Structure formats: structure tokens, C-alpha cells
Structure to design on (126 residues):
């Protein structure tokens, strides 16, 4: 007697379990990776804006630089301490501008809490 094989006869269940495990791992990486990645994206965007303002420093005053950076802090949703600790220093020898700030962000994961400190500093010759 000839028997037709169905696609269910070849399944042992390992493929489905392996696929489910892989999907769970990918979901976990995305779920926990997005907040961590967002922290670093905000850091790099703030540092980039600090570089931009430092390049324009010869033609604008410290008040304008500070106002623009405070707007960036607000737009990025950084903690208030980032705006409080914002420092702009111009030196005469060598002629340069130093812009710096610091802030902390907390990541809460199951069974683990991590506090990351960010301290971007930009030096630009004028």
C-alpha cells in the first residue's frame, strides 16, 4: 500500500523550539537594547551640538552658546543636571574654548540597575 507522507511526519519539534528561543532572544535584545542605545544616542547628539557651538565660538558670545546648548538639553530630554553643570570657558593661551557638562542616567533592568555617567568635553582652538 502506498502512503502519502504529510509535512507533519518530518517534524520533530526541535525546529519550532529553536525558532521560539531565537525569537525570544531577539525580543529581549531589542527590549533591553533600545533604552541603552537611546542613552548613547542622546550623548552623541549632545556632544555633536557642543562641537558645532565650539566651531562658531569666535563669532558668538558665551550667552548665545549657553542658550543654544540649553535648548539642546531640553530637546534631547536630558536630566536637569546637564544644564546646571554646563560650563563654557575661553582661554587666551592657547586661544581655545572648552565646553563641558556631566549628567547621569539610570537604566533599570530586571534584577539589575545601572547608573551611567556621561561627561562630554569639547576643546576647539579659535
Amino acid at each position: 500500500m502506498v502512503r502519502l507522507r504529510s509535512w507533519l511526519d518530518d517534524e520533530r519539534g526541535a525546529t519550532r523550539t529553536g525558532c521560539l528561543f531565537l525569537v525570544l532572544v531577539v525580543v529581549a535584545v531589542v527590549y533591553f537594547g533600545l533604552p541603552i542605545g537611546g542613552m548613547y544616542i542622546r550623548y552623541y547628539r549632545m556632544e555633536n551640538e557642543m562641537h558645532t557651538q565650539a566651531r562658531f565660538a569666535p563669532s558668538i558670545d558665551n550667552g548665545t552658546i549657553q542658550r543654544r546648548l540649553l535648548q539642546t538639553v531640553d530637546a534631547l530630554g536630558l536630566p536637569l543636571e546637564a544644564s546646571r553643570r554646563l560650563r563654557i570657558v575661553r582661554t587666551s593661551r592657547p586661544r581655545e574654548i572648552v565646553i563641558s557638562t556631566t549628567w547621569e542616567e539610570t537604566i533599570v533592568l530586571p534584577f539589575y540597575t545601572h547608573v551611567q555617567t556621561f561627561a562630554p568635553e569639547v576643546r576647539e582652538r579659535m
